[in-house]
Amino acid sequence: MALYSSFVDSQASLAQLLHSLTAYRTSYIGCKRSHVDGRPAMTILQLFIPHKKRVYLLDVQTLGKTAFTTDIHVKTGATTLQSVLESPTFRKVFFDVRGVSHLLYNQFGIALQNIQDVQLMEAASHPSDARATRYVTGLRACIQRTELIYPSERQKWKAVYQAAARLFDPGLGGSLQVFQDRPLADEIRAYCMHELQYLPVLKTRYWHRHSRNGMAESVATETTARLQASQSTEFRPDDPAHVISPFQRSSKVLSTFRPDFDKTKVRAPPHTTVNGLDSKDSPKKNSTPKPRPKPRRLVRPYLLRVPAFRKFWILR
User: Coil, strand or helix: which one is 275?
Assistant: First the structure.
C-alpha cells in the first residue's frame, strides 16, 4: 500500500490534520519520545488515517502545547486536537496505549477516551494457550508473524526499521536524540511513517479472534485499567512488569495457575451397561472393515492431448 506523510509544524498543516481527523473519526496513533533535562518527553505524535493513506507527524517539540489547544474551524465548528483525543465519539487505536497516555497526561493534561489497544486484542486472541498468554507481544513480532502481510512487504518493513534502528537504538550505537533533530533524517521519517501501516490489518485480525473467544469485554476492561494506571504518578514506562499479559489466568489449562490441582483426584465417570455388558466390553457396530476402493488408474496429461485417446478415456 502506497503511503504518504505530512509533517505538521504550523497552524496551516495543523488545520489539515484536524479536518482529516474529524472527517473520518478513526485514527491510529503512536508517538516518539526523547529525553529532555533527564526526563522522557514527547517529540513526535504519529496519526495514521487509513482512508487517506496518510500519516501525519505532529511536531510536538516545535509546537508545544499549542499543538493541542489551538482552535481550528472545521465542518462541525471550532475544535482542538485535545478535544478530539478526549472525545468519546472519535475512535483512537493504539498498540500499547500506556506510553502515549502517560506522556499526554503528564505533559499536557490530556486524558484519552474511546481507546482500543491492539496489543491487548492480540493477547486475548489465544486464551487457551498458557505459554502464548503469559507475555504480551511487541509490534514487530506481530507484523513478522501474521500471515495477512505478504513476505515481500514484511521484508520491506524490516529494512525500514533496521535502517532507523541504527540511528535511535543505543544498543546499536544510536541515540533517542535523533527524534529531536530538525529536519528529521530520512530514515527516521520513513520509520515513523511505516510503523503504523499495518495496525489496521492487525486490529481486524485480532478483533475477530478475541470476539470469538468471548474476550471482548475483558479487553475493554483491561484497556480502561491501562489508561488509569498510566495516568498515575507512580507509573514507570520502562517497568519490566509491563510485559506480563493480563490474560495469563484465562487459560483453560488449570495446572498452569492452580498449584493445588491434582489430576489423580478427579473422579472417573461410572461405567454404563449395554445388554448386561460394560460399555467398554460391548460389541461395536460395523466392526467388519470396509474394503478399500480400488484406486483409479492415473492418466498422463500429455496423453489427453491425443484425440483418439481422449475419446477413449472419456467414454470408458
Answer: coil
Q: Do residues 72 and 15 make contact, with C-beta atoms less than 8 angstroms apart?
A: yes
CA-to-CA distance for 253 and 187, rounded, in angstroms?
45
CA–CA gap between residue 47 and residue 26 (Å, rounded): 10
Residue with cell 518527553: 41
Burial 136-148 (b: 16+ CB within 10 A, else e): bbebeebbeeeee
Give the per-residue pLDDT at 8.
96
Which phi and psi (to 5°) does residue 164 adopt? -80, -35
Highest mean pLDDT among 69-83, 115-129, 161-175, 252-266: 161-175
| Band of pLDDT at residue 302, cut at 50, 70 and 90 | low
Q: What is the mean pLDDT of the chain?
A: 80
Q: Which three cell numbers stand for residue 48?
A: 495514521
Q: How far is CA 169 from CA 65, 162, 230, in A?
A: 27, 10, 24
Spatial separation of the C-alpha atoms in residues 263 and 267, rounded to whole Å: 9
Cα 285–chain centre separation: 51
SS3 content of the chain, % helix, strand, coil (to 5): 45, 15, 35
Please, what's the b/e burial string for 109-120 (b: 16 or more CB within 10 A of its CB; e: otherwise)?
ebebeebbbbbb
Q: What DSSP state is assigned to residue 36?
A: E
Average pLDDT over every residue of 15-43: 90
**Whole-angstrom distance, CA of residue 81 vs CA of residue 60:** 12
Over its C-alpha atoms, the chain yields an Rg (Å, rounded) of: 28
Give pLDDT, residue 251: 40
